[in-house]
Amino acid sequence: MISFTDTARNKIQKLITAKGYAGIRLGVKTTGCSGLAYVLEYVNEYTSEVGVINYAQSEFVVLVGQKDNVYLQGTLVDYVRQGLNEGFEFRNPNERDRCGCGESFRI
After folding, report:
1. Torsion sign over Cα 5, 88, 10, 21
2. Rounded to whole angstroms, what are the CA distances from 98 to 38, 54, 61?
3. Which band of pLDDT confidence, cut at 50, 70 and 90, is reported for residue 75?
4. Dmax of the chain from CA atoms?
5. For the domain with range 3-95, which CATH number is right: 2.30.30.60, 3.60.20.10, 1.10.287.370, 2.60.300.12?
6. What is the pLDDT of residues 7-33, one digit of tens each?
7. pLDDT score of 51
8. pTM, to two decimals
9. What is the radius of gyration, based on Cα positions, of the chain?
10. Is the pLDDT of residue 47 over 80?
11. Residue-by-residue DSSP string for 10-43
């Protein structure tokens, strides 16, 4: 299961409403010095796809590929603001470590 803080849920809802998106797609990609990085993309239209899990929230659709779901199980998505920086933060209990800059992680 993937969950969202109220702050993240509200931010996603505002963004998809303003841009007319149907929801988001969460995943991971191979990159960085630790190997994996989180990906959050907005989707224009929701269509049922083979191999995609739908974690529907009451406010929006969350799509996760089965391959990515293995890495994301138990993740809490938050939206944080620290000084001039703001963005989505992923709290994943499966992470073993992160690179020094915090951009990539290892399972």
Report:
1. negative
2. 12, 27, 28
3. very high
4. 41
5. 2.60.300.12
6. 999 999 999 999 999 889 999 988 766
7. 65
8. 0.84
9. 14
10. no
11. HHHHHHHHHHT--EEEEEEEEETTTEEEEEEEEE
